[in-house]
Amino acid sequence: MDAMLEWARRLSPAEAAAGALAGNLALFTVALLAGGLLVRRFGDRRVTPPPAPPDRRERLLTVVAVLLNSAVGLLGWQLWRAGWIRLTTDPGPRALVDLLLFSLVMDALMYGGHWLAHRRRLYRLAHELHHAYPDPRPATLFVLHPLEVLGFGGAWITVLWLWPGMSVLALSGYIGVNLVFGLLGHLGVEPVPARVRRLAVFRWVALPMFHAGHHADPAVNLGFYTTVWDRLFGTIDPRYDARRAAPDPALP
């Protein structure tokens, strides 16, 4: 792990930019392929109507999102190399603690940012664009206004800057966690079977149908990884737990 960090430190800016772009293209490709497989496999468990064919604007926004995410990754690399972001190679329990705490901090920040994004003036400025596609598909995860892409990127870079030393394994794990939750929330289907959805842990961990409910009703379910903040601040769909336990989770 130390050798990998030293190799990354020696990259030129051009090489780092190419690596950031390649990494984000890989994440985008994985999201489309895995999402497509899940939608086909669980197409009988739709929780939103089937989406219309993607339009030109939707395709353009996904390209812009991948490019901007790559730029954020390059900025993170530059800040790390300059010493503003501190990374460690600690394995095991330290990495797990970092991953859990970082995910919870980001969940809180994303809830707050999402709540602000739904205030009328800010909504019209940026977030309304995402809700122009109420029936999500896997690629909808990347259909965001550029300001939102940069806002999320800026948030996690700021948290990394303030962190006393983030485990590389935890940071890599968080990128995976963010992709998985973002993808599952935009499938438009519920792949988790009812017997699993009824487990106590899924009262707090957001299921795919949780974010789908937000697309159906933008006033509810503002969280991303957990339902904690929605329950605390009263923005959870009051029917969510009943739907979570129902054999058929379809939203009306």
UniProtKB/TrEMBL annotation:
Residues 100-235 form the Fatty acid hydroxylase domain. The keyword Transit peptide does not apply. The chain crosses the membrane at residues 20-39, 60-80, 100-118, 139-163, 169-189. The keyword Transmembrane helix applies. Keywords: Membrane, Transmembrane, Transmembrane helix. It holds the Pfam family FA_hydroxylase. It is found in: Membrane. InterPro entries: Fatty_acid_hydroxylase, Sterol_Desaturase_Related. This is Fatty acid hydroxylase domain-containing protein. It comes from Kitasatospora putterlickiae.
